[in-house]
Design brief:
With about 325 residues, the chain is α/β, with parallel strands linked by helices. The chain has two domains: about 170 residues, NADP-dependent oxidoreductase domain (TIM Barrel), CATH 3.20.20.100; about 90 residues, no CATH class. Helices cover about 40% and strands about 10% of the residues. An eight-stranded parallel beta sheet has the order 3-4-5-6-7-8-9-10. The chain has a two-stranded antiparallel ribbon with strand order 1-2. The longest helix is centred in the N-terminal third of the chain and has 15 residues. The radius of gyration is 19 Å and the shape is globular. Belongs to the aldo/keto reductase family. One of its GO terms (biological process) is D-xylose catabolic process. InterPro entries: AKR, AKR2D, Aldo/ket_reductase_CS, NAD(P)_OxRdtase_dom_sf, NADP_OxRdtase_dom.
């Protein structure tokens, strides 16, 4: 059974380099999917309030532990603070609710999902709350990112989160965070694929000892089904001649090549699949190496093309403008 190598975070914790992303995993299959992924060898699961499947993910974890497939300490479980809970007094209560949903005492990593503060929505009214407040309108909150980050640091100091991180931050926000952080984040999670390389941001994180996790490693693949026009207009990476030529040379799938392009450069990945053979193949992406020129060829496909942008979903929050 393959298992992923780990990377050491700046607080000494070890994080698997390959995990399983829970975005768009259906509620009715999520518990079984998590269970099967643990059985395959996955130990990192990347969830979020916004995915709406944390209870089911926790059920899969609980059954795997009960059946002796793993122990809690073998797992690296990740969740995220949603935009509606950025006010300092909201952070700990929602984290505790999410822990309860998972059936956990702590998260191995808890992340600020977006650098966006939205108006608070009580979980009893709507959960997960999504981007809109009432009447499908986006209403911004008043919390600063500094206020929210200090509340995250409290979770870290109290042990509710063994590590903390941010997601969808750019270099400017990271430079600002450095000014006020008591504890630098352990990780930054960003959209990262050959069409959006963000090398300057990667270099900056490396200089500060912040580990990077890539989401949407397959580029437009995840967004075509969301009917996103920019994804439809972009050539699928699985069909790209450069990716396919390298995959053929190594006798690997295009997906494995894309994941290895990231992991060989020290970037963690969180793909998902419901197919048992692809589950195993995605996990086993550190058993071969790409040549330096192959890595350069793949990086050379950069189009600065971002898919996971609030404006692409019709929300007037241009955080990447």
């Amino acid at each position: 059974m393959p298992s992923a190598p780990t990377i050491k975070l700046n607080n000494g914790k070890e994080m698997p380099l390959v995990g399983f992303g829970l975005w768009k995993v259906n509620n009715d299959t999520c518990a079984q999917t998590v269970y099967d992924a643990i059985k395959t060898g996955y130990r990192l699961f990347d969830g979020a309030c916004d995915y709406g499947n944390e209870k089911e993910a926790g059920e899969g974890v609980a059954r795997a532990i009960k059946d002796g497939l793993c122990k809690r300490e073998d797992l690296f479980l990740v969740s995220k603070l949603w935009n509606s809970f950025h006010d300092k007094e909201r952070v700990k209560p929602i984290c505790k609710k999410q822990l309860e949903d998972w059936g956990l005492e702590y998260f191995d990593l808890y992340i600020i999902h977006f650098p966006i503060a939205l108006k608070y929505v009580d979980p009893s009214v709507r959960y997960p709350p999504g981007f809109t407040y009432e009447n499908d309108k986006v209403e911004l909150g008043k919390a600063t990112l500094e206020e929210t980050y200090h509340a995250m640091e409290e979770l870290y100091e109290e042990g509710l989160a063994k590590s903390i991180g941010i997601s969808n931050y750019n270099g400017g926000l990271l430079l600002d965070l450095e000014r006020y952080a008591k504890h630098m984040p352990q990780t930054l999670q960003i959209e990262h694929h050959p069409y959006l390389v963000q090398q300057d941001l990667l270099d900056f994180c490396k200089s500060r000892g912040i580990a990077v996790t890539a989401y949407s490693s397959f580029g437009p693949q995840s967004f075509v089904e969301l009917d996103m026009q920019s994804a439809k207009d972009a050539p699928l990476l699985f069909d790209h001649e450069v990716i396919n030529a390298i995959a053929k040379k190594h006798n690997k799938s295009p997906a494995q090549v894309l994941l290895r392009w990231a992991t060989q450069r020290g970037i963690a990945v969180i793909p998902k699949s419901n197919n048992p053979s692809r589950l195993a193949a995605n996990l086993d992406v550190c058993s071969f190496d790409l040549a330096d020129d192959e890595i350069k060829q793949i990086s050379g496909l950069d189009k600065k093309l971002r898919f996971n942008n609030p404006t692409n979903y019709g929300f007037p929050i241009p955080i990447f403008a």
